[in-house]
Amino acid sequence: MRKLSIVLITVFVFVFVFAGCGKKEVSGPEAPVTAEQVHTDGQYAARAYVESLLNGDKTLFLECYPDGFIDELNASAGVDVYEEYRKAVKYSGEFLGTSFVDYKDFIQQNGFDDQYMRSRINSVMAIPYEEIGIIRVEKISAYFVYDGEQVNTNFFVVVFEYQGSWYVIESISGKGEF
């Protein structure tokens, strides 16, 4: 039940973050993230997460998490987590891709409670607290064509390093604005 609650909260936050789509001059998307890139840097894990939900790539979505985590979550929640996320993601227009904008370290000096997030990663993903490396908030822009005009919106995705690889823990609201 706890994991189902986590899934539902994460879906709600994702939809809330996505609701802030705004029109402005944008440079455009970068080349799509490949499965081989996902674990090499936090920006790729975050971009892969956003791209996978917007373009329907379940394989890429699974790469964003430690091996077996989504399978375990599916079993405990009794639903296909990826499909639940996809149902929550609604947008008009044509998805063009994503680009990395910036990141902030998830530390107290930047207004984040890093000890809480480490505990959360440990609790939710069963990763030993002391083995969790850097935690960051990655700002990712997603690009669309809507009514013939290119528009974008920003996503804020919390990623962390574990044993030399990067993974997603959650998306957050605009509190991570920078």
Kindly summarize this structure in a few lines.
The chain is an alpha+beta fold and 178 residues long. It has 6 helices and 4 strands.
Largest sheet entry: 4 strands, antiparallel
Give the structural class. alpha+beta
Mean pLDDT: 86
Rg calculated over all Cα atoms: 15 Å
| Overall form | globular
Reported CATH architecture:
Roll
State the separation between the terminal residues, measured CA to CA.
34 Å
Parts with pLDDT < 50 across at least 5 consecutive residues: 1-26
Number of domains: 1
Features:
178 residues, 4-stranded antiparallel beta sheet
Q: What would you note in describing this structure?
A:
The chain is of the alpha+beta class. The chain has one domain: Nuclear Transport Factor 2, Chain: A (Roll). The protein is 37% helix and 28% strand. The protein has six helices and four strands; from the N terminus they run αααααβαβββ. The chain has helices at residues 2-18, 42-55, 58-63, 69-77, 81-88, 114-125, and strands at residues 94-105, 132-146, 149-162, 165-172. The longest helix is centred in the N-terminal third of the chain and has 17 residues, at 2-18. The N and C termini lie far apart (34 Å).
